Structure formats: C-alpha cells, structure tokens
Amino acid sequence: MHALDWGMVIGYFGLMVGIGWWSHRRVKTDKDFFIAGGRMPWWLAGISHHMSGYSAVLFVAYAGVAYSQGVTVYFWGFASIGVGVAIGAWLFAARWNQLRAKFGVASPLEFLARRFNIPTQQALAWSGASLKVFDVASKWFAVSILLESFAGVPILVGILVTGGVTLLYCTAGGLWADALTDFGQFVIQGLAGIVMIWAVLSSFGGISGLWTMWDRLPAGHLSPVTEDYTTVFLLVYVLVKTLEYNGGMWNLAQRYMASPDNHAARRGALLSSALYLIWPLVLMFPMFAAPLFVPGLEDPTTSYAAMTEKLLPAGMVGLVLAGMFSHTMAMVASDANAISAVITRDMLPVLWRKAREFGETQRLRAGRIATFSFIALSMLVATQADSLGGVLSIVVSWVAALMGPISVPLLLGMLPWFRRCGSRAALVSWAGGLITYAVLYYGVDASQTATVATPILVSLALFIGLGAVASERTDEIDEMLDVLDRAAKEKAPAVAR
C-alpha cells in the first residue's frame, strides 16, 4: 500500500481510540457501561444495531460466495436480517426495553433467572459466551486476511493490531464508546462504499452499469437460491436471523435496552431493518461484478481485495480498508460489551459469592476486566482459525446452527404465547438442539442446509411441545409477561410518529 493509504488507516485507528477515551468520561456506573444508562437516541441505537450486525466476513467469506455463486448471498445473508429485524420491531424491541425500565435488567440474560431459573440462565450464558469467542475469533481472522492481501502484513500482526485498538476503546468507554464509534464507522464505511461503487461504475462507462452488468455475469449468478444455498436454507435463515438479531445475539438486545423508551427502541429497530435491506446492495455490487474484473481467482475470498487494488488510486485503498475494519471493530466491540455484561451480572455472582455484594464501582471494574479478557481470548483463538475450518465454516456452520438452540428459550420466553414453557422446556430444547448439531456435523456429515436448519427446528419443537404437554406456568411468570405484553402493544404518541 501507498503511504497515503497507511495514513488513512492509522488516522482511522486514532479516531476510534479518541472516541473511546472521550466516552470514558460518560461512564460512571456499570449500567452506563453496559446499556448507556438507557439514554441512547433511537437513531444512534438503530445505526449501532446495524453496524454491530456484520463484519469483515462480508468482504472475505461473503465476497467469496458472491464471486462464485452471485446474488444468493444477499438474500440469505442480509435480506433475511432485514426481514427478521422488522419482525423484531413488532415482537421484541419494546419487550427488551421494558425489561430494563420495569425490572432493572442490564444484561441480556439477567431476566432468565426470573423467567426460568438460575441453572437455565447459566447453561445459556456459558454456551453462548463460549460460542461467541469463536465467532469473534473468525472476525479477527477475516480482517487480518484483508490486511495481508492489501499490504502483506502477517495474519498474526493483523490480529494484534485490530484487536488491540478495539480492546482499548471498548474497555474504556463501554456501550457509549461502542455506539459512537459505530456511528463514525458508519460514516467512514459509507464513504468507502460509495468510492468503490463509483470506481466499478466508471469502469462500466457510467451509471448505466447498474442495469447493464447483470447479463455479463456467469450463468446462475442472478438466482436467489443455488444448489448450496437452497430455498429451505433461505427460509430457515430468516427464522435464525429473526431470533439472532433481536436478542439471540446478545449485543443487539442491548441497543433496544439502551433506548429511552419502548417507542424509541421500536424506531431504532425499523431503521436498522431498512439499512439491512438497502445498504448491503451498495456494498455488494462490486462483489457481484468481481468475476468481470478479476476472473479465474484460485481463492474467491480474495476477490474484493483484488478489485480494490486494481480499481482505486493511492489513498482511496486505505479508505476502503478502513471501511472494512469498521465492520469488524463495530461487531466485536458490541459483542465484547454484551459478553462482559453477562459475565459480570449473570455468571460471576454464581461463581463467586463475594461478587454478589459488589457496588457500582466494583461492577464497573469487573465489567472492564471481563471486556479485556474476552477480546484477548478471542484474539488468541483467531490465530487458530484455519484449523477450525476457516471463516465461512465458523460463521455459517457453527454460529448459525448453534445460535438457534441458544436463542429459542431466550426470545420465546418473552412472548405470552409460551407462558406454559418453563425451565424444563428451556433446558431440554437447548440441549436437544446442540446434540442434534453435533450428530449432524460430526457424526453423519449432513448437508449445510440440514446442519443449519435441523438444530433450531428441533429446539422449537421441544420447547413448544414440552410447554404444551407439561405446563410450568406460574403467577410470577404471568405477571412479568403481562407487563412486557402491554409495553409491546402500546401505541406510539402522535409526536413520535
């Protein structure tokens, strides 16, 4: 890379650290650190929700799918999220917000101890936190591949640099730093995306390339589904993403909890949904065009990096690379904050009696230590990502398949239709989904569609079925769900529309 490109990247890193240090002054308590004290504006919560949902995996693994199979990756990778978050704006956003406002919840799993019991809470906490270590590790690995492709920086150095910068600002400023850097990253990513699509369209002779390019692509590249990514896979992905992006992926629940009220939480969700449906098309248009610019690549995951270096002048390459960093750092900072909330408020008090007596200052310190430790551990695992199957295997086969069984009790446990489902249904559905995944992935080598679809369907069947035949309904559960249900049905005042 040119010196101008390096200057752009270094300036970006410096800006992120500066925002983190500024946010540090706004954090006085653990609730400020974990849920921004419930004071985050709806538009910032919406942008942060969006930016926290995808990473440099888009420019590596997903770019590889776009290069080899075409537009299918948009439909299952992002349109599914847009639809799922829109559903969540109606079903889940206000409920998460009211858990904070009415019940003092500051961790996505904190209400599970009351809704089910502590063993259920701990089972989901430990399994979800462990899965997130590998998920985040795949993000570090993906962004380090990009840095290696652009500048020849060794993968280990790339992991240390990007992870180290994220560790600094996330540990210092908590969710405020996370959300504010998300906004800055959104702007940078937007500039980078526009620069890249402008370069592609210029090569096509102008704006007409938006509609003349498609006939030149390889056969099958315009199909929403393919042999690998079937219609069933797409439909199950909508289900998985509805659960994952409305609280199953704990960090995104925090955006709803951080909003001032349930109406703001819902508006933030709708903004994020719209961004997921529209903005990935801008980012992915160059990926769809890649076979026309860099044909015959042995490794399709390098296609976006190869196009960038071919089409952009010095300085602009650094801007696009900073935009790629922004995705990863936004998601990882968000994950780290959510995991530290779960560790500090849900896991540590069970493991260590003294932690139950912590005051606000001690919980804040514990949260920062947990954030630091989680990011450091994920960086260590990232150095072994190749031996774990690579980026796409971790993100699709591991996370998509395992997040469902972890999400089912968490999300469905909020809804009044499942008030008969208690701790037995939660634990059996969770365990059944994980066992199903292990059998399919490691035992019978099932197809990708079966591996992703079956665990969540098994979990759903077990959770709903056990609730139907062996009710664990209690007055306390009814009272909690009724409060959440009233909040979800409450109409927004005219001034908020």
TrEMBL record:
Spans through the membrane: 6-22, 42-67, 73-93, 123-147, 153-176, 188-211, 231-253, 274-294, 314-344, 365-385, 391-413, 425-444, 450-470
Localization, UniProt: Cell membrane
Record key words, sorted: Cell membrane, Ion transport, Membrane, Sodium, Sodium transport, Transmembrane, Transmembrane helix, Transport
Protein name in UniProt: Sodium:solute symporter family protein
Presence of keyword Secreted: no
Pfam hit, one: SSF
Statement: the UniProt record of this protein carries the keyword Protein biosynthesis: no
Lineage of origin: Bacteria, Bacillati, Actinomycetota, Actinomycetes, Pseudonocardiales
Species in which this protein is naturally found: Saccharopolyspora mangrovi
Membrane topology: Multi-pass membrane protein
